[in-house]
Amino acid sequence: MHVFVTGGSGLTGPAVVAELVAAGHTVTGLARSDAAAARLESLGATPHRGSLDDLGSLRSGAEAAEGVLHMAFGGDFSDLDDMMRRDRTAIETLGQTLEGSGKPFVSTSGTLVMPAGRESTEGDEPDTAGIAAFRIAGERACLASAARGVRASVVRLAPTVHGPGDYGFIGMLVATARRTGKSAYVGDGTNRWPAVHRLDAAGLFRLALEKAPSGSVLHGVAESGVTLKSIAETIARRLDLPAVSLTPDEAATHFPSPFMATAYGLDAPVSSVSTQELLGWSPVHPTLLDDLEHGDYFATPGS
Q: What is the pTM of this model?
């Protein structure tokens, strides 16, 4: 299959591109810079110059492909409405380009769209008042194309997609502990986060492209809920720092932003049982705590 990929040079994207190429697929990747183009070429993909705001480049990339995988998401987190608009518009453009073709279209969201405080499943409705509600419009735009002759599906990734070179949520926790001299969690730390290894996530994206039924909502989750206290305590031990509990008010100034502080205090377990059964997806790579123990999270910065 010839696949057009957006976000192929980001944090998770390179693993996905490598997975697709290894499985015999041909990949063309959206590239907005020379560095992104070079990264894609090194993975065996062909760069397609453009950006999420260049709708013409999205159309031409999708028109030439047999399937589309949309992972790119970005913008200014101080303007969530604009981020939502850019994502929805890009997804609508890709979906419209594929109308009536029966081609696969896989878009990306996050499990933090789900209701907090209980384990959510693929069949539950997202929380329109939740912390990640700005991702819901993109989900709906993708799934709407299923009624117009597109084999559309959405992959909701765990907030923690871990693996080498991780600069996401867990990387931020490590960096914050180094900067402040303490590894923190919010309240009693029993709140849970789902997690998935980057290579397992890559396998899920490939399976979604290859065989996800139209209209599928998939959860990219290998562990349904890892407590934030266990994460913070592992970081504390590895850095020889104290693990401390913070109140929500203290967390708002300790972590990089109030948004991050709210996220780190959220109880957001998510199941992927239906996803695994539907696609035969079986996560096999290290768990989050294993990665914290044996991965590169504590390599000397800059080394």
A: 0.96
